Each structure stands twice: as structure tokens, then as C-alpha cells.
Amino acid sequence: MTSGKTPPNEWLDTAQQFQQNLIEQWTRMAQAFPGAAAQSAASDPFAAFKAFMPQSGAANPFGMAMPGGAAALPGLPAMGELFNQANNGQPVSFDPAQLLEIQNGYLKEVAGLWNQGPNVKPAGDRRFASDAWASNPVAAFAAAAYLLNARTLMSLADAVQGDAKTRSRVRFAVQQWIDASAPSNFLAFNAEAQQKAIDTQGESIAKGVANLLHDIKQGHVSMTDESVFEVGRNVATTEGAVVFENELFQLIEYKPLTAKVYERPFLLVPPCINKFYILDLQPENSLIRYCVEQGHRTFVVSWRNPDESLANKTWDEYIEDAVIKAIAVTQDITSVETINALGFCVGGTMLGTALAVLAARGEEPVHSATLLTTLLDFSDTGILDVFIDENFVKYREMQFAQGGLMPGRDLATTFSFLRPNDLVWNYVVGNYLKGETPPPFDLLYWNSDSTNLPGPYYAWYLRQMYLENNLIKPGKVKVCGEKIDFRKVKLPVYIYGSREDHIVPIGGAYGSTQVFPGKKRFVMGASGHIAGVINPASKGKRSHWIGPAGKFPADVKDWIASATEHPGSWWTDWSAWLKPLAGKQIAAPKTYGRGKAYAAIEPAPGRYVKAKA
Length: 613
Description:
Elements (H helix, E strand, L loop, with lengths): L7 H25 L14 H4 L16 H4 L8 H9 L8 H21 L14 H4 L2 H23 L4 H17 L10 H9 L3 H16 L21 E6 L3 E6 L5 E3 L3 E4 L17 H7 L4 E6 L11 H20 L4 E6 L1 H15 L5 E7 L17 H10 L5 E2 L1 H9 L3 H14 L8 H7 L4 E2 H13 L10 E2 L2 E2 L9 E6 L7 H5 L9 E6 L17 E4 L9 H7 L1 E4 L3 H8 L6 E3 L14 E2 L10
Parallel strand pairs: 4-5, 4-6, 6-7, 7-12, 12-13
Antiparallel strand pairs: 1-2, 1-17, 2-5, 3-16, 8-9, 10-11, 13-14, 14-15
């Protein structure tokens, strides 16, 4: 362990080690590309990357010896394995001239780093922003060297020549290793964690070990103080009652907050890969409560967290016995011919599928639909596409051929590693190296409250949508015995996408405008998948964009170029759109449900949402 006052000769040893690593890296790279000539088909296409890796096999982009003799990071494959997965047999190459340009730029930056000597400061990265890094020359030099090598590795990733999917996979693999190999992630290199250990006389290390043991026991890295929250007590508190349930879902009706309600009820279908209370975290940011306050008689699907009894459930059963059933029950309770409905994320995909099934049967029980960050056209699936290919899907199909569950923790881990610095390594450093307890945050509590998926449902969804994009091909796929054809779904649709969404890219959300033939409105909000949706009107935060009425060019970039920015939340625009579609106002009901057939079963949020994966 080093302190803030590092002897000059220790920094000199570190700098000399870096210099030796530099010579070895570029020697290996030159040998991989003799004379900067075009590589042969037999050459390793990723030799340029591996030149930066220690010959013992573990990735180490910051050019310093890894703790434990350069042992590979636990839980992650070696860099070579990642690259083998990345190109998946597809041809890749590099432009020798571009490689030479990257090399020259790198050597120029190395000279600048060397000339700064022990006065180097790793600027522009919050991981190395504390005074402990700046005051420790060895740590500061390690951080600066890491950042330089990380930039070079990403330049090499950008220089890969191949098909779009291979290039994305290479970038993803390189970025994962860059993030995992940061010196801040290791106590041997993290000057801030070392200083805290000294200041607390080792207490921070003891707390870190305790935090690690706690997280091992609970099965996931703590992102928040989960002991503070309880579903139904301080999250998911909007008043209501469960009025129907079957083996797949509970239907919750919420207590009106207005003397009158609109005649046409409103049904929300959240994603079944998460719990519904993302729409009801706190009264001030609850979309559910907002709907009730606007005078809508509001119902919400609360999905059951699958156990082994649901291990054979299919996509068809979720559509027929859950989404279509929820629509029918809402109609029955309210004694109306049509309802308004909203689907969020996968819930929107399921709602859209249900509408197409009903249309094929000649039924139109839904008067209007709202789709929030939803994919129907899976042409643009963003970073998730790096995981999807024929081999991956076949593996899942074989895995779940006889049923089984896709563990919620595996799904949550995958989504976390889409943003590893924010959702993984940030907490590894804080919880374990610094011995800190993360502060209470309701959104991150929800994020950690994972749900399982039935394996057959999951495998079918992967192939038909992510791999083959069959849902938008008229008549290509059958669901519940009906051929799916969105040309028959002619109801008014409100479509929302978030500009910085990494799960449902804005182009993917916009794709639904090309699917529905009826009246449409598309709105783009600022921020990401969750923060863009959960943007209360009362806060006046962020912005949303609206394009010319009835104009939906094929490319989302053309729509964005024509759109006008409006300050504040999209909620008010949506509420104004929904109001004339909700029918006349009638007296608010005095009781939940309807008669004995739909009597209140238990208070909201119900017991299904409380079941842990």
C-alpha cells in the first residue's frame, strides 16, 4: 500500500516499467503487421489488440502489472475468448495506414506523458478526480497510462473493418475490458481507497469485506441501501385493490382521486421482465398516480414473478391469458365496449401483439394505445444486438426445450454490464474497496428487485423478434393461432421514445410509426430508458420534441431534424392527446371491482409484486 507521499525512485521504477511495456507492445504489434503490409488471411485479426495485453493472458490495458500476478478478473473471460466471440467467424481486417496513424498518435501522447514526469495529472475522468490520486505520483501515472492505453484500444476498435455487427461486438468486448481493468477497481492501485484505509485505521477495509460477504449472500452487488425500502410501505403506495388474479398476473384497480372519471377506463401493461412499481415509486413521480389524478379509472397489470410452476409458459399464453384477459376483465368490470391501453417496454411489445391477435379475430376492444419505449420493429436494437446470433438463440432454445426459468439475476447482470462503470464498477469500488454503504435510492432498489422469465417464453421472444424480426412481417408469425399483421390494427396510437435510450434506441421506438396504419403521434423525450419515461410534469425538467403532424419519414433522423423542442415533460402532451379519446365524464365508482365476480381480493400493490426471484 502506498501513501500520498511516494518516494521519487518508486515513481521512476513505475515509469520505467511502463516504458518497457510500451516497447514490448509495439514490437509485438510490428511483428503482427510486418512492414505495415496488409495482413494475410491466416493472420490473427486481433493481434493489434493483443499487443497491449500481458503475455500471461489477462487483459491489462493500463500497462501495469495486475495484482495477483496478472490473474484474470473473476467472472470474465480472457480477452482472447472475448475476441473469438466478437468476430464469430466473420472476416475482419485493419487498414495498415490507419494503424500507423494510431501508432504515431500513441507515441506522441506517450512522449507528452513521459515529459510530465511525476507531475502528471489524470484529468477528465471522475474515477481519478480525488486529491488522493493527484497527490500520489505512482497512482497518478498509472491512471494516466491507463487512460492513454484505453483511448488507443478504442481507436483500434473503431479501426476494425468488418460488418456492422462484428464491429459493434469488438467495441463492446474492448470497452468491457477497459472498464474492468481500470486501476481504480483494485485496492493495490486505488490511491483513494488506500488513503481512506489509512485515515480510518483499516476500518474501511473491514467494512468492505463485510459488504462483500453480504452481497455474496444476497446474490448481487448492492446499488442502494435495500433495507430502507419495502414495497407497499414507501414504494408502490398509490391506493388501490387487486380485483382479479390468475396464475400469470394480478389486476389492480386504483382509487379515484377525482369526483368524476372518464367513461373509458385505462389499462397499463408494464414489462414482465421488471416489476410494475417503476410506474409508482413515489407519489410525486408516479405515472400511475398521475393517470388517476387526470380522471382516468386506472387499472394495472402486476405480473407474477415466475417460479417452477410457470417454467413451461409460452409467449402465446402470456398474450392470451394475461394481456388479452386483462383487457377483457377491465371491460367487464367497467361495463364498456372499449378501453384505452398503455404498454411500456416489453409490455408494449406484448400489448401490440395482443392488439394484432384481436384484430385478426375481428375484435377491437381497445380504443387507443400508448407505447412507451417499445420495440415492434426489431431492426434497431442497439447494444443488445451484440448478444444475439443464431448460436446464442439455439443455445437458449436447447436450454429451455423442456421448460425452465431464465433467472432474473442473469437478466439484471446483463443490463448492468451495458453501463458497467455506472452500474457495476462504481459499486464494487464504493462498497468493497472503500467500505461505503450506498445511499437509499428508490429507483435503484427497483432495479435490484429482479424477476424471472419462463424459458420457453424467453427463447421464442429471442428468435422471433431479436434474431429474425418476424413480428412486423405480415403473416410471418402466428400467435394464439392468429397470423400477426399490424396493417389490421387501425386504432390511434401515441408512441414515445427516449433520445438516449440504450435498451430501446430512439430509432427502434420510432420504427413503430411505420407499422401502424391509423392516426399516430410520435414524441421524443430527453434522457434514457427509465428517466425519460419517469419525468413528472410537475418537476418541469428536461424537454420533449414533437414533429409536424402526420409526417413520419422512414428515417428517424429526418423526423428529428423536423421536430420542435418543448420544455418540460412529455406527460402533459400525452394527457392532452388521451383526453378526447377517453369519452364523457361520469361519477367515480365508490367501490373497487364489480359485484362478487370482481370483488377486492387484497389491497394494492398485492402479493405478486412482493415475491422475490
